Amino acid sequence: MKTLFLSDLHLSPDQPELIRLATDFVAKQSAVDAFYILGDIFNTWLGDDLIPPEFEPFIHALQHQQQQGSKIYLMQGNRDFMLGNDFARLVGGVLLDDPVVVNLYGHSVLLMHGDSLCTDDVSYQRYRKVVRKRWLQKLFLAMPLSIRQRISDKIKAKSKQKKQYKQAQIMDVNPAAVRQEMKQHKVNLLLHGHTHRPAIHKLESIQTIPSYRIVLGDWHPEPSYIEITQEAVRLVDQRLPHGETHLSLT
To answer: How much is the average pLDDT of 41-53?
Structure first.
């Protein structure tokens, strides 16, 4: 058996080929204990009450896997932070906190989307703190679709403009923030997405055994995923040498 981790699919109604790629990937998997999707499943999410019909094939693929015995776990990202429990229940899954520690085959693993680790991007962290306020989200969800869409479009346009002037290292994770999270949660293995920089990073040991940070890539144009079994971790991404890299857990 195996557990699969995905992140940053950025599914959008105007990219049917990407929806098809994600749907086919999920549908073709077998003998999977659980699927974990660590945020930015969708490029925009305006509320669980406004699910674009273009996402139905992907939703059905998740539902089918759940019916076959696979567990489905979802996490909010910086693009789909309005994703809620209603959608999680729709696919037969569970909405996870960020961060969260899970036990996989005897190993404690810290899961995050990854945006909260980019502490050098001070303006984004301020924005993140505001938009995650529950009262503000409830106010947004009470608005008509047209207004929600207008607000979302303005936020994305402003974010794209700001990124043009930010240095690349500012938008990557802060090593001290990584160490702090891993030390706080007493883990030696961290999995996250967000930065679109797939890699396995060996870190200074947090406890007495080697520590690792494993980063998922985005799905443009090929799948990026982590497969964990009892024996090993496998990061698969076409941007890596030979298309994948491994980490032994034994």
So the answer is: 96
